[in-house]
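Example 4.3 (complexes with small molecules)
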Amino acid sequence: MIGILGAGSLGRLWAALLPEDQAAFLPRPDADPAAPPLRYTFESLQGDEINVSRPWLGSAGDVTLLLVTTKAGDTLAALRHWLPRVPEPTPVVLFQNGLGSQQAVAKAWPMRPILAASTTEGANRPTPDHLIHAGTGDTWVGALTRPAESQTCSAVSRLSTTGLAIHTEEQILPRLWQKLVVNAGINPFTAILDCPNGDLLTQNFFLEHIDALCTEIAELMAAEGIERVAPAELRQRIETVARNTARNTSSMRGDILKGRTTEIDFINGYLVQLGQRLGIPTPVNQLLTDKVKQLSPQ
Ligand code: KPL
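Answer. The structure with ketopantoate bound is encoded below.
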């Protein structure tokens, strides 16, 4: 059985696309153990609507692959509850945005097969019971801990039963950084300016800060040994994604609009912390972090 921890858009996408008899959700610790299966309508890329019903697992003893699709800030607590109940050899694949939560999990359970995934699949829930697979992309999966190194291929092959494009990734950290750069350059600006991704490109606040932000990120990436890249190239990557997702509401703007805690601590906040550790000033990341925090509940 493939257990899915986190019943947001991404968790529901995997649950809908994996073979029906192989996927089930792990409930929150405080959930009613007799809760009925999770039911929702899944709208495929082609626009077909399918009714999905997946059970909540009462125990995790039969989980042979665990997908963790919780928000970055909820991940450690969710795993502290569930991992002692999951068999030791079960690979755990982390799908969190940003960085920081993945390293924290790998540090807490170095002897477990912990993997991380970076995905560009797009899914959203216009209403709680309706999941739209809005755009397809690629998903890369790679090992974070040593025991996971021999598990990457089998995890990828099980996830490939969805029909999505899933790849093994030898160097998952640089891959997670690629997404972090895009999120750091789009998400806080859209949240602060309360606009869809594409509208950023002409806004003064974005134009005033984007070059300095990219300089900070390029310095951090070089110091971390991730990639030596010119700030202008990072700006181009950010602007390309903003144009390609012009009508999207970023996940951070979505969180603010719904009154939820954002993932800022794992995106620009992560970069601030890293700068402090490395002695690299990050005033723009700090400014964006502070402004987003002023907008969201803590
Ligand atoms: O990943 C995203 C997010 O919203 O978190 C982007 C790429 C910015 C698309 O909206």
